[in-house]
Amino acid sequence: MKFIPIKSDSSELLELEKNVIVEDVVASVLQMYNASEQLPLEPWIAYLYVQGNDVLGTCAFKSPPQEGQVEIAYFVFPEYEGKGLGTFFAAFLVAQARLAFPQVIVMAQTLPENNASTRILERLNFEKTGESIHPEDGKIWQWSRR
Q1: How far apart (Å, rounded) are the C-alpha atoms in residues 76 and 81?
Q2: Which residue has the higher pLDDT, 70 or 36?
Q3: Range of the domain at 123
Q4: Looking at 8-53, which runs of residues are DSSP E strands?
Q5: pLDDT, tens digit (0-9, with 9 covering 90-100), for 33-67
Q6: Model confidence at 9, in pLDDT bands (50, 70, 90)?
Q7: DSSP single-letter state for residue 68
Q8: CATH no. for residue 136?
Q9: Per the database entry, which stretches of residues form a coiled coil (predicted)?
């Protein structure tokens, strides 16, 4: 099992078992990269988590750090939910952020309800810091870990 960086020129991605979700994730990430003024550098990118040729999920930094903060996102593909992978993905991103920028504040957003994502963040010592309105999701909770 390993994390594979999603890069515009990643030949490792060609070897993976693809499905609609994987193709959508990779296309969305590459579109996000192309829309930015400059391509993000590792570790501030997106990753697929693979076992053999199967993709189990994805995790990402939404952008490189800005004003000492970086936001993370993670998604476990439905058939692999409930196995601790979400916690593993979020912990991986926190560790990568700390290695690259020890003082960075790691941020996350969740829907405003107790669910798997909120439990993951609580388990990893994130604190709920407020609420805001997201353009697509509506009301959300903001989380941070110093």
Answers
A1: 6
A2: 70
A3: 2-145
A4: 46-51
A5: 888 777 778 899 999 999 988 899 999 999 999 99
A6: confident
A7: T
A8: 3.40.630.30
A9: none
